[in-house]
Specification:
With about 425 residues, this protein is α+β, with helices and mostly antiparallel strands. It is built from twelve helices and 19 strands. Helix 7 runs antiparallel to helix 9, helix 8 crosses helix 12 and helix 10 packs parallel to helix 11. The model has no long low-confidence stretch (mean pLDDT about 90).
């Protein structure tokens, strides 16, 4: 569960970290009449995504008229596909220096990692790529509850050497680092991050931004904390740092989905590769499908086949949900081919094929992008599914001309995948897919 900035700051405040004075959370300009505001202030869009500043989601206002104008414009914005519904107003702080500070968990080893840099306020990944010497990183091999002072001192020494302007703030820096670590451990977070951690002109250390992602598995233990900052413990938000537009859409519809491409909305495909979307019949089969597409791609197609997603379509989805799964992948700009499989157990082959055909007919009628689909179905309700499929092909052949579904066990899935990829490359070479 990722928290909004104002919620994360409340947690940091509980652990003794200094935060800017929060004035209000507003959803329209009329609410401004309810508050007494001393200017200047910061106006911040509350969305669970990074990159707000570059997208116009963070601005400074000097008076009430400027505030109303900024809020009105901000509420019309969409940041990386996310609409803005709430806006934080807080005091503006004069900045002398900006620091990056985080405590997180290495996904490969599950060790705790502390990262600090005097180059705060910018994309830390970019700093790490271009100037790795500006990053201080410490791996904590033992799961200690409180950060030893000697480690905090190392971080402070590195930061002061990087920015002499931090001299005189060493004690505050040390306390803040230890407090952030304590917050990370106590709330059972996946990440606690401050970017930027501001050194003000009067040498105060202030968390100007805040990011906290809680571990979903520990939320039941964190009910008192969640209630104390106004969150219903039964509510759920995504538990990853940055969702893509497609992950968010799948989450709202109600099925598990993950993009395997970085920033798929901006992704640029390599012309000689085939990008394969997957609608498998369950989570386990979803993992297998990714592996099998890569395996077939490596064995027969010189490693030029790229699976673009993980999806769990099991558990007996409705007709409309099946249709939405295919709509999502056909709307995905990277998709060249869709591989699907329905091994009917809990899920019905009949519901599956009806939902799939419903999506294709709908897209054909609305002249939306159509993607070749190869797959197989076997199991529950197979007879009814076969009958419906054959009837649909007779009644509406045009929308289904690129739907290739093997009914029953007469072909193994690896061969279905190979056939689909061969066809995908053939169509792509003829530029038959609109991209």
């Amino acid at each position: 569960m990722r928290l909004y900035e104002y919620e994360a700051k409340q947690i940091f405040g509980k652990f003794g970290m200094r935060i800017p004075q929060q004035i209000a959370i507003v959803e329209n300009i009329e609410q401004l009449d309810d508050f007494s505001i001393s200017f200047p202030i910061m106006i911040k869009a509350m969305v669970l995504i990074g990159g707000r500043g570059k997208a116009g989601g963070i601005k400074k206002a000097k008076n009430i008229d400027e505030t109303k104008t900024i809020i009105s414009e901000m509420l019309k914005l969409s940041i990386h596909g996310y609409s803005i519904e709430k806006i934080l107003l807080e005091e503006a702080v004069n900045i002398s220096s900006e620091i990056y500070l985080s405590v997180t968990t290495d996904p490969a080893t599950f060790d705790i990692v502390i990262v600090a840099s005097a180059s705060g306020g910018v994309d830390i990944e970019e700093v790490a790529r271009q100037n790795p010497e500006k990053i201080w990183k410490k791996i904590i091999l033992e799961n200690v509850k409180e950060l030893p002072g000697i480690i905090a001192d190392e971080a402070v020494e590195f930061l002061v050497k990087s920015d002499s302007n931090l001299m005189g703030s060493e004690n505050q820096l040390k306390t803040t680092i230890q407090s952030l670590y304590s917050a990370f451990q106590t709330v059972e977070a996946k990440i606690c991050e401050i970017n930027p951690l501001i050194v003000s002109e009067d040498k105060n250390i202030i968390a100007a931004d805040a990011k906290v992602v809680l571990d979903d598995n520990s939320l039941y233990r964190q009910e008192p904390l969640l209630k104390s900052i106004g969150i219903d413990p039964r509510s759920k938000r995504h538990d990853i740092s940055e969702q893509t537009i497609f992950e968010d859409k799948a989450y709202r519809i109600g099925f598990p989905y993950l993009d395997l491409l970085d920033e798929p909305e901006k992704f640029e495909k390599e012309k000689d590769k085939l990008y394969v979307g997957l609608v498998p019949g369950g989570a386990g089969y979803g993992i297998f499908s990714i592996d099998e597409v890569v395996n077939v791609g490596n064995r027969y197609f010189n490693g030029k086949v790229v699976p673009i997603n993980f999806m769990d379509s099991g558990g007996g989805p409705s007709l409309s949900k099946v249709a939405d799964m295919f709509h999502l992948l056909m709307d995905h700009p990277a998709t060249d081919l869709i591989i699907t499989s329905r091994f009917g157990g809990i899920s019905s082959c009949d519901i599956f094929i009806r939902g799939l055909i419903m999506s294709l007919r709908d897209r054909y009628t609305k002249r939306k992008r159509m993607i070749p689909i190869f797959g197989r179905m076997v199991g529950t309700d197979l007879a009814a599914a076969r009958e419906y499929f054959e009837k649909a092909k007779r009644e509406t052949p045009e929308p289904l001309k690129d739907l290739h579904i093997v009914v029953g066990n007469k072909k193994i899935m690896a061969d279905v995948i190979k056939d689909g990829i061969e066809y995908g490359f053939k169509i792509k070479s003829q530029d038959g897919i609109k991209r």
